[in-house]
Design a protein that fits this description.
By secondary structure, the protein is of the alpha/beta class. Helix content is about 25%, strand content about 25%. It is built from 4 helices and 7 strands. It has a 5-stranded mixed beta sheet with strand order 3-5-4-6-7. The longest helix has 16 residues.
Amino acid sequence: MKVICPSCLATNNVPKQEVYKKANCGKCKASLLDPHPLALTSDNLEAVLESTDVPVIVDFWAPWCGPCKMFAPIYEQAARAYPLRVLFAKVDTEAEQFLASRFKIRSIPTLIVFKDGKEIERVSGAMNHEGLDRFVERFL
């Protein structure tokens, strides 16, 4: 399956497995198991969405948003729980107002799930750990 390197954004082919102990980028040698959500911008969003076979869950947030701040550690924990099964990404709607407008973000946080470069579902509002896990599991 194709996955994106969180460090250099190179596309990598990796065998599909249930659990990965080690996986490194063929280009930059960085770990593909990076537990942090990938920061998306207008410059890299299309390449990321079109170059990965795993579902991409994007958190649209803003630094001034209280619910976004409360949700951030829950989202980061989920990113650590699904390495190479789901790509977790974030868009700062304050810095990337064009993307917020393009995806018609009306409230934050909003999660949008992409598969094969297309939006397949969205949900607005912060979730707890269990709610986010149930949401993610639907796309595996």
